[in-house]
Structure formats: C-alpha cells, structure tokens
UniProtKB/TrEMBL annotation:
This is Synaptonemal complex central element protein 3. The gene is SYCE3. It comes from Geospiza fortis. One of its GO terms (cellular component) is central element. GO terms for biological process: reciprocal meiotic recombination; spermatogenesis; synaptonemal complex assembly. It holds the Pfam family Synaptonemal_3.
Length: 92
C-alpha cells in the first residue's frame, strides 16, 4: 500500500516537473523572440544610420536636445522641492 502511494507521489512530482519545464520553455522562447526583434531593429537602425548621414545628425541633435531638456527639468524639480520644503517649514 505504501508503495502505491509512493508511486502516485512520484507520478504527481514528475507531472509537476514537466509542467514547470514547459512553462519555463515558453517563457524562454518569448524572451528569445523579444531579443530577436530587438536585434533586428538594431541592425535596421544601424544600416539606416550608416547609409544616411543626415539621419545620424538628426538623431544626435534629438539626443542633445533631450539631454538639455532633462537637465532643465531636474533643476526645476529641485527648485520645486526646495520651495515646498521652505513653505512647509514656514507653516509649522
């Protein structure tokens, strides 16, 4: 009797293990698909940039403007934080 219960437990464990392997494989395949798409887009962008210097210049300009904007936003955010702390201290 104990032997048949042990066999049922082993069967259940094997079944669970197979389900886990299948789930893991599906997740890995999805991740590989995402990486493949990312790699394809990178290759496409690289080719586009190499064949069109104006595109590279435009992308560089966009990045520069973005970084300047980000810097200004961070400065303003710090000013707002300092002002709000100052007002909070005055109200108390």
């Amino acid at each position: 009797m104990a032997e048949s219960e042990s066999q049922e437990g082993n069967y259940y464990n094997r079944e669970k293990m197979v389900e886990n392997v299948e789930t893991d494989m599906e997740e890995l395949l999805e991740e590989m698909e995402k990486l493949t798409v990312d790699a394809a887009w990178m290759a496409y962008n690289y080719t586009a940039i190499q064949t069109n210097s104006d595109l590279f210049k435009a992308m560089q300009h966009s990045e520069d403007v973005f970084l300047m904007c980000k810097e200004q936003m961070e400065k303003k955010w710090q000013e707002v934080l300092l002002e709000s702390r100052g007002e909070g201290e005055k109200k108390e």
